[in-house]
Amino acid sequence: MNTAVEPVTNLTPVQKQALCELLLALADDEFVMGYANSEWTGIAPILEEDIAFSSLAQDEIGHSRVFYEMLATLEEQSADSIAYGREPSGFRNAQLVERGRGDWAYSVTRQFFYDTADFVRIESLQKSTYQPLAKAAAGIIREEKYHLLHANTWLQRLAEGNAEAQQRQHTAFDALWPDALGLFEPTSGATELLATGILPEPFEALQNRWITRIEEPLRRLSLPFPFIDASERWDTHITPIYGGRRGEHTQSFLDLYSVFTSVYQLDPEADW
Predict the structure, then answer these.
(1) Is the N or the C terminus of the chain less surrounded, counting Cβ atoms within 10 Å?
(2) For residues 144 and 117, is the Cβ–Cβ distance under 8 A?
(3) CATH class, range 13-266
């Protein structure tokens, strides 16, 4: 990890390409997660969560716009064309965020995984030597704190619920661990970004910090924690699901893609 603190102002072509890949991953994760969460609008189990999940969706799509606009400046395109004008293989979101809605336990467990991992990632990016990215992270993290509160509230609520709630939560954990680890799949050009401090820490280091942070609540609530402390890192038997950062996606993503691009396909000049 580079300890340099000098801001990066003049990007080389290689650095620019690597930064664009990172920004796409950040933006696409938020964008697709936002659209996936919006599917609960009107059908959440209680009115408060109907509102809460709609608010989460709005926040995430708002965060994605911050990253898309940063990318648009670098690539001299519009944020709308980047968000809606790509083929599915052009998206760099992790597969966790594109999975089908599932039941309530599945969705809130996925949200717990995503919000806790995203907080670690955004927290680190505040130290980026690319000042627009550091500034964006500093703004976004304020809202991420509320996302964490919501995620942890539901983690505990399900864990302390009745037998069916607990069973559904454990089933969701078993299904989602590989996808959750996939959030830390390195982006193309990450090594170059580390060398300049644009990416302050390796993805492996972020993953280890994430696991450390979720250990306490999971152990306290007797939830699955399939990791062994191996000195400076965590070991696990779980194989991460990678591919999203390379444009590999599931049928669930293709279904969602057809929905969120439908207006743009009809009228590419429409504003976001």
Answers:
(1) N
(2) no
(3) mainly alpha
